[in-house]
Amino acid sequence: MTEELHAPGALARAGVIPLSEPNLGQLEYAAVLDALRSGFVSSVGPAVDEFEASFATAVGAEHAIACSSGTAAIHVALIIAGVSRGDEVLCSDFTFAGSANPIAYLGAEPVFIDSDERTWNADPGLVIEELERRAREGRRMPAAVEIVHVLGQPADIGPVLDAAARFGVPVIEDAAESLGATWSSGGLAGRHTGAVGTIGCFSFNGNKIATSGGGGMIVTNDADLAKRAKHLTTQAKVPAVGYLHDEVGYNYRLTNLAAALGNAQLSRIDEFVTAKRRIAQFYDEMLDDLGVTLPPRVDGFDSTYWLYSVLTRDTNERDAFVTHLARHGIQARALWRPMHAQPPFSAARRLGGTVADTLFERGVSLPSSTHLGDGERDRVAAAVRTFYAG
Ligand SMILES: *Cc1c(COP(=O)(O)O)cnc(C)c1O
After folding, report:
1. Please, what are the domains in the chain?
2. pTM of the model
3. How far, in Å, from the CA of 75 to the mean position of ligand 1?
4. For 363, which of 94, 101, 255, 297 is 20 to 30 Å away at the CA?
5. pLDDT tens profile 74-85
6. Shortest-distance atom of ligand 1 to CA 203
7. Residue to mutate (ligand 1; options 93, 96, 336; most atoms within 8 A of CB)
């Protein structure tokens, strides 16, 4: 399938229901204009400080460091976790490439963890087994474990945190897609995805639940890690000394203009999460009897359903399903090819079986914009039904 380039809103004007578009209004317009008028357009300014402070509060973390992208956040998170050349990092297999690429930037080796059918995220049993096997055999531990919470769905990370703590391995959460997702029972009750590991990473790319037009955030409860993250994202420049850089740093700062947009969006996060959950509830009810696999619903794991995604009944049915929806003016999209099947990672080791492959072979995301209208929802559900029920 070819990827077409669309101006924002162009699909809707053409009568096509887009997969997911940012929800931007007067609040966002005013915030960006204010920042522009203030003269703080670049990488320092009050909106950045405010974004970091409100974000830390929103997810219940002590420190938050704004970055230029989610990928940059993960890159820096891996460095401050201690990952370097030749190290291994256990990483979710079923995810977007932005999770795994930073491991390669560092010359480290990913070891991909297959998914758990219950959550579609990394199977904690595989991580525990691997850490215990290494301990038994006296082998080196991975330098970090990176767990992704895909599609707004919290991973079953509690058992991973326990095992990693036993073996002294830091856990990085890639929460790029799961801002607003929480646990409501069990050991992590009341906690937010991205704020339970050693370091958490978020993205504010245009397709995420809240956007800054492009941006990311690192969160941690460790003051030293937070300080090092800030240092690395700001060219490792030593304050108050004439251009002294005490290590190789990065220009990974977020601009004040972007942070202004991020602040406006963050103030609406509850509205966005409520809207996503309402859409999911609707689709769940409408598609329940078709034999498709609905997205995970795990007791105590409160997904935001960032992109509502189903598994088609059969493999080989996915592309016909997406084409059928396109013919009905509905933009749907296949889920990710797992990382182990990507050319740059074809030599990487894998833990587990083929759950991630099945998610790729059968997975399709349906329109999930937070401002999706009731009439549009009905059209999507009707088109899905005609594919299966004729
Ligand atoms: C979007 C995304 C990223 C990368 O974030 P960017 O801001 O686009 O760099 C990383 N991981 C996952 C799971 C994502 O969805």
Report:
1. 2-23+268-389 (3.90.1150.10), 26-266 (3.40.640.10)
2. 0.97
3. 11
4. 101
5. 999 999 999 999
6. 7
7. 96
- Percent of the chain exceeding pLDDT 70 equals 98
| Confidence at residue 2, expressed as pLDDT on a 0 to 100 scale | 45
Residues within a 6 A CB radius of ligand 1: 69-71, 95-96, 98-99, 148, 174, 176-177, 203, 205, 216
pLDDT tens per residue across span 225-241: 999 999 999 999 998 88
The 3 state secondary structure assigned to the chain is CCCCCCCCCHHHHCCCECCCCCCCCHHHHHHHHHHHHHCCCCCCCHHHHHHHHHHHHHHCCCEEEEECCHHHHHHHHHHHCCCCCCCEEEEECCCCHHHHHHHHHCCCEEEEECECCCCCCECHHHHHHHHHHHHHCCCCCCCEEEEECHHHCCCCCHHHHHHHHHCCCCEEEECCCCCCCEECCCCCCCCECCCCCCEEEEECCCCCCCCCCCCEEEEECCHHHHHHHHHHHECCECCCCCCCECCCCCECCCCHHHHHHHHHHHCCHHHHHHHHHHHHHHHHHHHCCCCCECCCCECCEECCCCCCEEECCCCCCHHHHHHHHHHCCECCEECCCCHHHCHHHCCCEEECCCHHHHHHHHEEECCCCCCCCHHHHHHHHHHHHHHHHC
What average pLDDT does the structure give for the chain? 96
Best residue among 203, 252, 306 to mutate for probing ligand 1's pocket (most ligand atoms within 8 Å of CB) is 203
User: Quick check: 1 pLDDT over 50?
Assistant: no
The confidence score (pLDDT) of residue 83 equals: 98
